[in-house]
């Protein structure tokens, strides 16, 4: 009999609400290497992923670029709906048109324009020329930055010196295809255009720009896992909608764009509004997997499971920018919430997404080991190159804005529907607006994070998510509660000065 620590069942049935930092796992038995650890999992009943990572449907986290890199890594991005229907549809369409792990900024001018400064190129190697100066089907030519710099007359019109249309490849070419083509032709860059897809009016439209420098950068990053590809051969992309009547019309457009999974977005998912929305989706789009939530109790979870949800999103007030617990006095510690909900969801074969409270790889290990199949990340991904927004400097630190969807700023833009708001003038904030430091590219730090998760699983004696869940259910996995002093001891301490680098 193992009398070290407690089983999860005993620990989480004592009436306390625990966060990830409150608990610690005791080591198990190792008879395999970290290379033998697999993190394959399911987002929903029918959507498999290579890594257990999901980007949150927040307007400072997930749009096209984030969706593309998450799918390229083997996870998935959920596109937010704090925008118009056409904007959300465009983001999804753009993301699903890619097969390489990044999205470049595209710049356009008209033939009669002049390019006065190198700043107009931004980070791009070239500017495309179209009749209107906007992204349209007929590209007349392009201006490369290297050629522009050699011009003696910077006031000249673009039509006087532009090159003919650039070399173009279909956007369904994968990274290896594009890299091989650029190398074989010794090209500086190629444009990727929408391939023919039925009667798609966007056929032939430029969707990306790939340079030889991009290829070298990608090759220097950690090796990518198996990408998340749907039956249509395109990247998996999810989307979020609310529970209002207008969201039913929004959903119709999103389904036409080919979304692979749907999140019904609500801070408290156990509601008449969400149940009605689930019924609508299931009756009208029976092949579309639906993720319900957010929930933190068995009671909430059972109500949504009865309606046929294919996944559950767990968390209430645990996000770094969320103030629901403080403002409304409702919620639950995330470790307790994940364990409680996953214990009932597992009985019905419904995967659980641990949403919120993820600050490091240890939190991911804890969430997955407590029964979650994936983790949804907001602040962990915010501030990356792929997150929406531009970098600014604050006190010498390069940062990006990160805001809760319950902040007044986000609610004013439309996200109040997530908090069961109506058209009332009184809006109560359940989130804040802040900034997060520049993290670099998701393509770099997520693979390192997944390697750390594998090492955590190895220490537990779990070679996969199913084996971790079996250790949990059988009581073999042992846990203890950490005192405040133990938490201090478990972190960096006793140093006058240090630099913390994870990779």
List keywords for this structure.
503 residues, alpha/beta, 3-stranded mixed beta sheet, 16 helices, 30% helix, 17% strand, globular, GMP biosynthesis
Let me know the average pLDDT: 86
Catalogue the unreliable spans: none
Q: Quaternary status of these chains?
A: single chain
Structural class: alpha/beta
Largest sheet: 8 strands, parallel, barrel
In angstroms, what is the radius of gyration? Answer: 24 Å
Question: What is the topology, as strand order, of the major beta sheet?
Answer: 4-5-12-13-14-15-16-17
* Overall spatial form: globular
Q: What is the number of beta strands?
A: 21
Q: Give the helix level as a range of percent.
A: 25-40%
Summed up, the helix count is 16
**Proportion of beta-strand residues:** 15-25%
Distance between the terminal alpha carbons, to the nearest Å? 39 Å
Catalytic activity: IMP + NAD(+) + H2O = XMP + NADH + H(+)
Subunit structure: Homotetramer.
Pathway: Purine metabolism; XMP biosynthesis via de novo pathway; XMP from IMP: step 1/1
Cofactor: K(+)
Describe the structure in your own words.
- The chain is of the alpha/beta class and 503 residues long.
- 30% of the residues lie in helices and 17% in strands.
- The protein contains 16 helices and 21 strands.
- The protein has helices spanning 8-11, 64-73, 85-96, 145-148, 175-185, 212-220, 245-256, 272-284, 298-306, 324-328, 334-345, 361-369, 408-413, 442-460, 465-474, 484-489; strands at residues 23-25, 41-42, 48-49, 53-55, 76-79, 108-109, 126-130, 139-144, 168-170, 189-193, 206-211, 238-241, 261-264, 290-295, 311-314, 352-355, 374-377, 392-394, 397-403, 433-437, 479-481.
- The chain has an eight-stranded parallel barrel with strand order 4-5-12-13-14-15-16-17, surrounded by seven helices.
- Helix 2 packs parallel to helix 3 (85-96), helix 2 crosses helix 14 (442-460) and helix 9 (298-306) packs parallel to helix 11.
- The two termini are 39 Å apart.
